[in-house]
Amino acid sequence: MILSNITVPLLGMVDTGVTGHLDNAVYLGAVAIGSMIFSFLYSGVNFLRMGTTGITAQRFGANDDDGLRVALGQALVVSTVIATALILLQAPLNTLAMTLLGPEPEVAGFASEYFSIRIWSAPATLANYALIGWFIGLQNARVPLYIVLAINLTNIALDLLFVLVLGMKVDGVAAASVIAEFTGVAVGISFAISELRRRGGHLVVSHLTNLKEYAEFFSINANLFIRTMALMFTFAFVTAAGARMGGLILAANAVLMNLMNLLSFALDGLAHAAEALVGRAVGARDRKALQRSVQLTMRWSFYAAVGFSILFWLTGPMIIRLLTDIPEVVNTTLRYLPWVIMAPVVALWAYLYDGVFVGATRAKEMRNSMLASTFLVFIPAWFAFRFLGNHGLWLAFMIFLGSRGIGMHYYYRYRVLPGFPG
Length: 422
Known about the structure:
The protein is mostly helical. It is built from 16 helices and no strands. It has one domain (2-416).
């Protein structure tokens, strides 16, 4: 799971590196804005991945093969409906995003071009969320790796072809993403068909066509949706606040967010392991297995976090210069690198507990913790430290990450464990 997750931010680094070496920083800023919009849109429906994992893992632990088919089928149906809505609403979504983020006019023009192309990846992207979530729930980490590798290797190759060989700009980066996502769907569906043929059980079509059958799915995922929207609001706020400080700060933060994404996807690999292990323990109603799973993944998350802090400390300047050779952007980014160096040990608890709560399908607690961290901690912290400029923005972000871990630890210790049988 770490291997598959870590390829996602590496792809973002390639996007940044390709545009960061063009002749104008406006392209880097435009891709940063465009990518952030899709991170918001697609991560907003990432409940498809998380909810599917939790439900699937528990049915896997209970040996419910019919339930496994329903879990995948319902996730794919919902992903198709949401993707269709995003495509139909693309014009107002694009206008709203540019209005809220407020980038400079030239950046906004290229970001809108990026948006109008990449929106067509929605059906494939959301279907991939469902497929990856389902396989993680089955404790099959190989297929998600194959899916993500297919997406990202295709995307990287097409990035280089379209931009460096054919001379395209942000349109080439966006087109590469669209083609790559559909490549991933083809890989995922082929493995899903093989898995279903191997398993017993059968699918009752009414479970996919009757809205009442989606009660459990929507109950869990509605709370996950609210939780994810609050998280993406925070990331969007950081990007928008940076954009209002000028194009140079926007570009610098975009480079640093690539390092943050590398960290988050790596720690998410361990969180995904926690989802599968905790979900299976809950499905089997095994309290000792639940506690062992949490302790084991927590220990390895700590090791990984310390390793990333050391990595960023030793190689951060080199990575920054690989991503962009614009002197002003490099120098500005280096001033804020210490925040990213400290981020792993601050953030690891939040990522780990995300996995625990997804596996236990305790979405309500995840929602409450995220809302409190966003609106009662992050926003007040930003206004309290706003006078520090971009340093104040990163300080508020670190406080947000730490508060998430503290909140979920409270819920785990005093709500989840006391209510678990055994």
